[in-house]
Design brief:
Elements lengths: L6 E7 L11 H15 L2 E7 H4 L2 H10 L4 E3 L11 H4 L1 H5 L2 E4 L45 E4 L12 E3 L19 E5 L4 H13 L4 E5 L4 H13 L6 E3 L5 H9 L4 E4 L9 H8 L4 E4 L5 H4 L2 E3 L2 H11 L13 H18 L23
Helix pairs in contact: 1-12, 6-7, 6-11
C-alpha cells in the first residue's frame, strides 16, 4: 500500500503555466518548490489563476480534495474586500507568500515601517490597529503569511514566517572572468536614469551584455535605448530573451560583474541569487530589499553605483553562495503545511457556497 502523503498543498499559477521560455521568478519558485515538496512526500498540485477567480469553486475543491494548505498568488481575489470573511475556512488554510509588496506599496518600493508595530510586533488574536498601513491587507485574519526576508513592515502580520527562496536550480560554478563584459539588467530604474547609465558605461568603453526586466514598462523602454547605443564601435550585446534553465552560461558565462540597479523592494531577486550561485559578483542599489544580501558592491543611486564600478579598477569578489537549497526551503514549507493539517481547519465551504460571485463584497485589499 502506498504511504500516505505528509500533506497536500495546492498552488495557484498564472494562466500561461510553465510553458513560457522566459518564465519569471514566481514560476521559478513554484516549479522548484513543488518538485522538492513531492520528493519529500508532500502532494503538490496547481490551479490556474482563471480557475481561482471562482472562490466558491476553489473552496469546494479544497474541501473535496482534503487540501491542507492553499497558496494563492498575491493578486488573488481572496485577498480583496471581505472575501476572506465570507470564506473563513478557506482563508484559514491559505498561505500568502509575499513575492511582491503590491498590496502595501503601489510603486513596489519598500513599504514604510508601521508606526504601531515598529516597537511591538502584532500578536495572534490581537485586533488590527488603527494607523497600521497593512490594515487593508487583513493581517488580523487566520491566514499564514510567508515573507522572503525580515523587514520592518512584516511586523504588522501576527502569523508570519520568514522562508526565502533558493538558487541551486543552477549549478554551483565559477563563471566570472574579471576581464569579461558587465551583465546589465535594465527595466527597474527610470528610463532617464537608464539612458545615463548606458551612456556613461559605453562612453567609458565598458563591454556590456544587456538583459531586461521584460514585465515592466521601463524594461520595454530600455530596449529602445539599448538599440540606440549599439553600433558606432560600442560593445553592447543584447539578450532579448533567455531561459535560465538552459541558458545560464549564455547569460553569466565569462562576465566580470552583474550590474542590477533597482528602485523596487526586491523581496527576493532570482537573477542576483543565480549570479552568486554561478560565481559572478553583483552590484546593486543599497535599499533594494533582498538585493544587498547578494551584492558585493552597493550604492544609494544608479549614478553612485556607476561611479563605484568605474572607479573600481580591479576584480570584485562574489558573495558566498547561500548554504540552503530548494530541499531546505521545501522542508520549511512542509512544516507549514503539516501545521495546517494538524490544526484540522474544518470545512472550507461556507453556508451559501455555490451561489457564484454575486455575494462577494468587492474592494481592493491594499
Amino acid at each position: 500500500m502506498a504511504e500516505a502523503p505528509a500533506g497536500r498543498a495546492l498552488f495557484e499559477i498564472y494562466d500561461e503555466g510553465f510553458d513560457s521560455p522566459s518564465w519569471g521568478g514566481v514560476e521559478t519558485a513554484l516549479w522548484h518548490l513543488s518538485r522538492s515538496l513531492r520528493e519529500a512526500g508532500t502532494e503538490a498540485e496547481f490551479y490556474r489563476s482563471s480557475e481561482g477567480a471562482d472562490l466558491d469553486a476553489l473552496a469546494a475543491r479544497v474541501e473535496r480534495d482534503r487540501v491542507d494548505a492553499v497558496f494563492p498568488l498575491v493578486e488573488s481575489d481572496l485577498f480583496e474586500g471581505a472575501a476572506w470573511r465570507r470564506l473563513p475556512a478557506l482563508h484559514a488554510r491559505t498561505v500568502r507568500v509575499w513575492h511582491d509588496v503590491s498590496r502595501l506599496s503601489a510603486d513596489l518600493s519598500a513599504p514604510p515601517p508601521c508606526p504601531v508595530h515598529a516597537r511591538v510586533p502584532a500578536l495572534p488574536g490581537a485586533p488590527v490597529a488603527e494607523g497600521c498601513p497593512a490594515r487593508g491587507a487583513h493581517p488580523e485574519g487566520p491566514m499564514r503569511e510567508v515573507f522572503l526576508g525580515e523587514w520592518p513592515w512584516t511586523r504588522c502580520f501576527p502569523r508570519r514566517s520568514v522562508i526565502p527562496w533558493a538558487a541551486d536550480h543552477v549549478p554551483a560554478k565559477d563563471l566570472c572572468d574579471p576581464s569579461g563584459p558587465v551583465v546589465l539588467q535594465l527595466g527597474k530604474i527610470d528610463t532617464v536614469d537608464a539612458e545615463r547609465c548606458l551612456r556613461r558605461l559605453t562612453g567609458a568603453g565598458v563591454a556590456l551584455r544587456v538583459v531586461f526586466a521584460t514585465w515592466s514598462r521601463r524594461g520595454r523602454e530600455a530596449r529602445e535605448l539599448v538599440r540606440a547605443h549599439q553600433g558606432a564601435g560600442r560593445r553592447v550585446e543584447v539578450l532579448d530573451a533567455y531561459d535560465i534553465r538552459t541558458d545560464w552560461e549564455r547569460v553569466f558565462g565569462g562576465a566580470s560583474l552583474f550590474l542590477l540597479p533597482s528602485v523596487f523592494h526586491e523581496t527576493y531577486n532570482f537573477a542576483a541569487a543565480e549570479a552568486v550561485q554561478l560565481g559572478v559578483p553583483v552590484a546593486a542599489l543599497g535599499e533594494g530589499g533582498n538585493l544587498p544580501r547578494f551584492a558585493s558592491l552597493t550604492a544609494p543611486t544608479p549614478d553612485a553605483l556607476v561611479d563605484r564600478l568605474l572607479a573600481g579598477g580591479g576584480a570584485v569578489a562574489p558573495r558566498p553562495r547561500p548554504a540552503a537549497g530548494w530541499r531546505d526551503v521545501a522542508a520549511r514549507y512542509a512544516e507549514v503545511i503539516r501545521e495546517h493539517r494538524a490544526a484540522g481547519t474544518g470545512p472550507a465551504v461556507p453556508a451559501g457556497a455555490g451561489q457564484g460571485r454575486g455575494g462577494r463584497e468587492e474592494g481592493h485589499g491594499g
